[in-house]
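[step 3/7] fold_predict: job queued, chain A
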Amino acid sequence: MKMLRKAPPKTSAAVLNRSLERGLLLLRAFGPGADVLGNGDFVERTGLPKATVSRLARTLVECGFLEHDVIRQAYRLGVPVLSVAHAMRTGSKILQTAAPLMREVAQKRLINVGVAAADGDDMVYLESFRFNQRSSLRTVVSGQRVPMELTALGRAHLSTLSGEERAARLASLEHGSTRHWKLIKAQVMEAIDHVHRLGYCVAAWQPEVVALATPLTIAGHQPVVLNFSVRTTDALREVSANLSKPLLQLREAIVKAMAALEHD
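[step 4/7] structure written:
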């Protein structure tokens, strides 16, 4: 079981509420394939002491954010978590504005179009319109996590960070990476340079899947990343030649639509 990929605190340790921070680590421990977790799972995923985990889990149960399965002696996420997630999605002006534009491009080009944001060492999909082999449009459930260092999404995000922030994030990624980190870091730095020069980067971390990504930065909102992906055996250069311009055009359309919304 893998240790939770988490970010260094963005604020001074003196400002943080340690109990709250640790309680949120328990909630972050859940994910695909980890819908029910016991105290031992929490300890392994968060690195927290068992006594601390037990105390925090009881508190989260009392608050409704965890449900205790007495038979399995384990916990699952409670209803308020879904309510908070729903409020985040429905309250996002970027998602409200971008979704119809993304859907239109996905349908027109029969490709996958998504938008994601960083969470620790991962990228989390906020919205994604995808086509299966029958070319029917479907929406992937928001919340899917993908590794930052391997994906076009993550590498585009890294291009938006300041030198100090990027160094801290790369150090965190190296700590949780495999022995191939030297090669991965070289690819990351090349992708960052590509974003700075051309506005996008490209990666193929899954077999026969090529993805392009570009940062979507709008004042007053958390930075997000827009991406296209296709299942293909074509070379990365060929896919880039076909999709880079439409990707950048979609980014500009979203930025323009957001500007009009903010102006109104």
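[step 5/7] annotate
The CA atoms of residues 175 and 199 lie 29 Å apart.
The mean pLDDT is 88.
exit 0
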